[in-house]
Design brief:
four-stranded antiparallel sheet; single chain; alpha+beta; about 15% helix; globular
Length: about 250
């Protein structure tokens, strides 16, 4: 969960709350201290501002509270409501932030812009369930990166594969297309074409950037991802989604 995201509390315990994220519908438990309650009026106003808010575009940047001068770390994809000229406000608290680390509108999705953006994310370590600079899983990486280009994805790879229009084959791939895989370790047994287990973002028809162990660029072809270090294929190609068909 990123700073500033909203959610609904489904169940409460003395310390823990079970929540459902408004952004992608994911559910889970969170320490109650991490949540700030909102009135219905605050929520309605905030939701409108959040939908068109500026976004942090670098893996990590620090904002400074103008109330007490304390810093808070913000990661890529974090939305900044009421942003203007390096300042934003959330629930009445004003903050300062480096304006060069913020985008006020989605980046145009093309190969050059994709490479310029993802190079700062290289070698972020894999962390199951993660979607920030401290650690990312494969679908957390794609969800955050694609949000910078104005594309809203669901959270898990299998969910992300259900949206958009499929490409016929890898030769038609364009920069920004989502590439899905259904099996890891091709020597482990037969791939299950119904089970999507991994996702990456195509740079072109021969390269994919993805998070497996760490964020990295590897060779892509009609079989899947070829891992030079292992001397073989690590992921089996299942499907490709045209990024232009994603909302």
């Amino acid at each position: 969960m990123l700073f500033g995201e909203t959610c609904t509390i489904l169940k409460q315990k003395p310390r823990w709350n079970r929540i459902k994220l408004d952004n992608d519908g994911q559910e889970g438990w969170i320490d109650a201290k991490m949540l700030a309650p909102m009135t219905e009026e605050e929520y309605t106003s905030y939701s409108k501002a959040y939908a068109s808010a500026a976004m942090v575009s670098f893996p990590m940047v620090f904002a400074v509270s103008e109330n007490n001068q304390q810093t808070i770390p913000l990661t890529a994809g974090t939305r900044l409501t009421n942003y203007q000229d390096g300042r934003f406000e959330i629930l009445g608290v004003p903050f300062r932030i480096d304006a060069s680390m913020v985008i006020t509108q989605p980046i145009e999705l093309n190969e050059q812009n994709l490479l310029q953006t993802v190079r700062f994310f290289l070698n972020i370590p894999y962390l199951w369930g993660g979607k920030n600079a401290m650690g990312m899983d494969c679908s957390g990486f794609t969800q955050i990166i694609m949000s910078l280009f104005g594309k809203r994805l669901l959270r898990n790879a299998s969910e992300q594969a259900t949206r958009g229009t499929a490409r016929a084959d890898v030769t038609q791939v364009k920069a920004g297309d989502l590439v899905f895989f259904n099996h890891e370790g091709l020597n482990d047994g037969a791939a299950n074409p119904q089970k999507i287990t991994h996702v990456g973002i195509a740079i072109d028809s021969t390269r994919v950037i993805h998070c497996s162990g760490r964020v990295k660029v590897e060779k892509l072809d009609s079989t899947g991802i070829y891992n030079i270090e292992q001397g073989g294929y690590s992921h089996h190609l299942a499907s490709i989604i045209d990024s232009e068909s994603l909302l």
